[in-house]
Specification:
This protein is α+β, with helices and mostly antiparallel strands. It has helices spanning 10-15, 25-36, 39-46, 73-81, 134-137, and strands at 112-114, 124-128, 138-143, 146-151, 157-161, 168-175, 185-190, 200-204, 213-216, 238-245, 248-253, 256-261, 270-275, 280-289, 307-308, 314-315.
Amino acid sequence: MTPRTSLPGKGFLSLCGARRFSFCGLCLAVTFFVDAGPGAAGAAIESPVAVSDDITADVSTTPEEPAAEANGTGKEDSAERSGQVKPEEQPKQTKTDTSPKSTVDGPDPDGIKDLLKSPLESNWSHFSSKEAMVTDIWQLADIDGEPQLKCSGEPRGFLYTQEKYTDFELSLEWRYPSDMNGNSGVLVFTQQEPRLWPTSMQVQLHQPAAGSIFPSGDATSDNSSEATGLANDVGKWNTCHITCVAGRLSVEINNKKAGEVTGCRPGEGVIALQSEGSETFFRKIRIRRLSAKAEAKPESPDADGSATSAAGVTRVSDSE
């Protein structure tokens, strides 16, 4: 092998030896090769090369994963790659209430209770002088778009509330389809006695004497009251309004004062409608309990034809 001749630039590099400085690993390799000769070339390739502290190269580093986007899809993609897939959320199941609903409404915000809500047996019981089913005498039906109670008049007896009342306001409407001497009545403070004329205070709905008040059975009062000529013609609806406070019983028929009695004894009981031989229709039977501390006073008509009750509540008749 031909001996290597000196390179033309060797003298120049020697002249610069005092000023030589390394810019990078490549410069050191060139200098080493020139100064040491070709024998050192292989060693230079196999040996680690000193690298400046200012330059680093990490060839083992893998490319970084793309940053997750703001919408969160990065986390979902990562979970899918790792095999941890989030299960789909199951819709919430709600229980369906299949229990039967009551068809009986309670008092409204003003404390008024409608006593003609279906079924009839939810508010009323009955007594008959002869063996009979309640539906043989009393039938609740929807007539002309409103609930009406029909009484056949026979057998005789009465339909009575399941609750007792002491101080209250009761309003209702009634009519006789064709009987010129139609007869029925409202019993208040009624005692639950199995007889045709129980102890009670009776408000007459008899066509010629509607609005009369008197004690029945073993009941007593300070006085009685008679009324005549207050009912409308047969076939037309009539209104009846009864107020009971502290043993004082006041009655209006068709927005006219019928009478008043005091000292009613007993002063508590159920309310009853009489079956007295005449076909009778009732509607809009409503009741409101009054405060036991309320002072009973007569009702007087207002200028607009309405009346103010003992409870201080203005009411207006809505009879046709």
